[in-house]
Amino acid sequence: MATPLSDTSLSPLRTIAVVGLGTMGTGIAEVLAKAGRTVLGIDISEAQAARSLAGLEASTARAVERGRLTGQERAEALARVRVSTDLRTAADADLVIEVAPESYEIKQQIFRELDGIVRPDAILATGTNALSVTRLAAESARPERVLGLHFFNPAPAMKLVEVVSSVLTAPTAVTAVTNLALDLGKEPVAVGDRPGFVADGLLFGYLNQAAAMYEARYASREDIDAAMRLGCGLPMGPLALLDLIGVDTARTVLDAMYAESHDRLHAPAPILKQLSEAGLTGRKAGRGFYTYEAPGSATVVPDALTPAAGGTGTAGRTVRSVGVAGSGTMASGIAEVFAKAGYDVVLAARSEEKAQTAKARIGKSLARSVDKGRLTAEAAAQTLERITPAGSYDSFAEVDLAVEAVAEDLEVKQQLFATLDKVCKPGAVLATTTSSLPVVACARATTRPQDVIGMHFFNPAPAMKLVEVVRTVLTAEDVHATVHEVCGTIRKHAVDCGDRAGFIVNALLFPYLNNAIKMVQEHYASLDDIDAAMKLGGGYPMGPFELLDVVGLDVSLAIEKVLHREFRDPGLAPAPLLEHLVAAGCLGRKTGRGFREYARR
């Protein structure tokens, strides 16, 4: 029977061994050394140990150049690091952090050897992000001292550390490493033992879906990445991130996740296997989803898949005037965008009063831009003058482009498109801003489906740079070219995609949000820990629950239902917790309560 850890585990962990001196191990060693710990770096390869030490010297030298360390602090930190190829060097360690390759065989061998080397009160931590901590602990002679300590790459910069407990882990060990993480200036999040934990558990499912989307040729790699950067504010697109992480690493993590969840969303996309087996593992190989200047380089170079400059060569139709249908926030924002770009805009609603109210909203938005110095008072006045409010869609008779931004209800949109078909002149382009409904269904409500296209703006339209351009099987080439030209004029980044539920952004975003809800529903982690993990570990501007409450739980549920209905994947079924909250009227910030409570204004 295992004996409990002694109370000495609560004392500061001063001497720490790091086993495995690759990129992650070297980064962890640097963090520890700069925080005053004695670091015993161990690797089976003498050359790798030397490279690690050289890497530490270079990294700390850069820190001095940037004013983040003094020369004295650098010298002291480096003096605290000793590297070796002998695992017995860890004999005096208070804590051993293992960051060897993601293989049960390798890691279990290390833990078995450490059992005969380290002190009885030493803590053993694995840095795995894919393998079962419980399984590794069970192989140890003292499983109560084994836990997971998952740093994120690059370890010196990333704040998040996931502290992973198995059912065997002693609370004293968890407390000791949590206190260490805080002392290192990190933000520890306590999680249970399941593949991917919180951050990678959510992140890799999203990355996998992006790879599958690209593999299906639904959208180009450039458009998928641009859509998620500009539509969600992410620091990198998913395919570029897969290249950075390593396609082979991603496949290993997903394999482990799928083995436990049997969720098709975690079944590695075949392209990940194909790229891995071809040696095209991303930046480290010089080629993955993209091609790089050299192995290890971050510089992308053109290859056979790089889009040709100048587009397709098809000439677009002339657009001088634009009609915007609707009176809500999205319609007002779109009208403002077009008017700022110099277009004459007719803003039509179901009544003159609603149209005037929408124009007044634009006036207030422009005034805020003037106050913030983003626009001159003269430019704001000229922009507002270009907008003509109207209480009837008959006012669209002479517009060259009509953009619909009414309620997200297919019947309502189809009725509107039937009206636009009658009032708009021949050759006018008809666009819908739907985020989840089939564009072709709107097109079929007209006698000119070739003139209909999707232009999915993001809210708030004046600030968000992305427009998803959605072609149906009936959309004419010159209509597609027209919309691309117009997007250039209004200074938006257009990405192309086909006419299927969610397009690019929502099809990748909402399954991720749904999986976060499932984590809370299953009591795996708290709202706060999940939000912190995704902001600190994934670089997301907002945590999933912050975002859900902003978007609206009713809106989120509607989109998830559309995705589930279209793709018929059990993994896309909306989480029951989301349905319960919506049924209770807890819709997010707009009602004062969603996943969190908000002060009523």
TrEMBL record:
<dbReference type="GO" id="GO:0006635">
    <property type="term" value="P:fatty acid beta-oxidation"/>
</dbReference>
<dbReference type="InterPro" id="IPR008927">
    <property type="entry name" value="6-PGluconate_DH-like_C_sf"/>
</dbReference>
<comment type="pathway">
    <text>Lipid metabolism; butanoate metabolism.</text>
</comment>
<dbReference type="Pfam" id="PF02737">
    <property type="entry name" value="3HCDH_N"/>
</dbReference>
<dbReference type="GO" id="GO:0008691">
    <property type="term" value="F:3-hydroxybutyryl-CoA dehydrogenase activity"/>
</dbReference>
<dbReference type="Pfam" id="PF00725">
    <property type="entry name" value="3HCDH"/>
</dbReference>
<feature type="domain" description="3-hydroxyacyl-CoA dehydrogenase NAD binding">
    <location>
        <begin position="322"/>
        <end position="499"/>
    </location>
</feature>
<feature type="domain" description="3-hydroxyacyl-CoA dehydrogenase NAD binding">
    <location>
        <begin position="15"/>
        <end position="193"/>
    </location>
</feature>
<dbReference type="InterPro" id="IPR013328">
    <property type="entry name" value="6PGD_dom2"/>
</dbReference>
<comment type="similarity">
    <text>Belongs to the 3-hydroxyacyl-CoA dehydrogenase family.</text>
</comment>
<dbReference type="InterPro" id="IPR006108">
    <property type="entry name" value="3HC_DH_C"/>
</dbReference>
<dbReference type="InterPro" id="IPR036291">
    <property type="entry name" value="NAD(P)-bd_dom_sf"/>
</dbReference>
<feature type="domain" description="3-hydroxyacyl-CoA dehydrogenase C-terminal">
    <location>
        <begin position="502"/>
        <end position="598"/>
    </location>
</feature>
<dbReference type="GO" id="GO:0070403">
    <property type="term" value="F:NAD+ binding"/>
</dbReference>
<keyword id="KW-0560">Oxidoreductase</keyword>
<dbReference type="InterPro" id="IPR006176">
    <property type="entry name" value="3-OHacyl-CoA_DH_NAD-bd"/>
</dbReference>
<protein>
    <submittedName>
        <fullName>3-hydroxyacyl-CoA dehydrogenase family protein</fullName>
    </submittedName>
</protein>
<feature type="domain" description="3-hydroxyacyl-CoA dehydrogenase C-terminal">
    <location>
        <begin position="196"/>
        <end position="292"/>
    </location>
</feature>
